[in-house]
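Bit of a strange request maybe. I'm writing a small parser for structure token strings and I need a real example to test against, not something I typed by hand. Could someone generate the tokens for this chain?
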Amino acid sequence: MPEGKQSNELRIGLFQATGLAVKDPALVWGAGSSDPRVTFSVGALNCTSHTVKQSLDPAWKEVMTLELPRGPAGTLVLEGLCEDVDEVSGADFMGQFTVDLAECVDGRVKRLWRSLEPRTEKDVVSGDVELVLQWRYNPRLDFCPFDGFVDEHVNEPPNEWRDRKSTRLNS
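Reply from user aminoacidic:
Good idea to test on real output. This should exercise your parser:
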């Protein structure tokens, strides 16, 4: 990473999951399946994987990125939400997990497994998700036209235009 620059992009490689819970029971024979997808979020930012149809051991092999705010990595958490997608009835909760982004502060690629956790005691959850994460500096995202901006006129009295404008507003 260039000197004086901070990480500004989180790369998320969603590789695979194993042992997911059945959310779509078989109607005639078999054990049933699920149609899983994963949504990642850091604060208000989020991204969602594609849906893998009829799999309890999906392989997404998908890379997503989140443009993260400047600042220390240790204060941010990546949240993952795994859902079974049903066209008619909506999405069913399959589990959730978190990753403390302080683990990624050095900019190296990290390969992690996370177990899915329930939201409530009633949730039927099983399985693990494999991720590859890298928090890095992306120079294409490093644009802020007002960094270092100094208002040259901050201590000067209002000019003629400002005086006329305030007179009109007060009338």
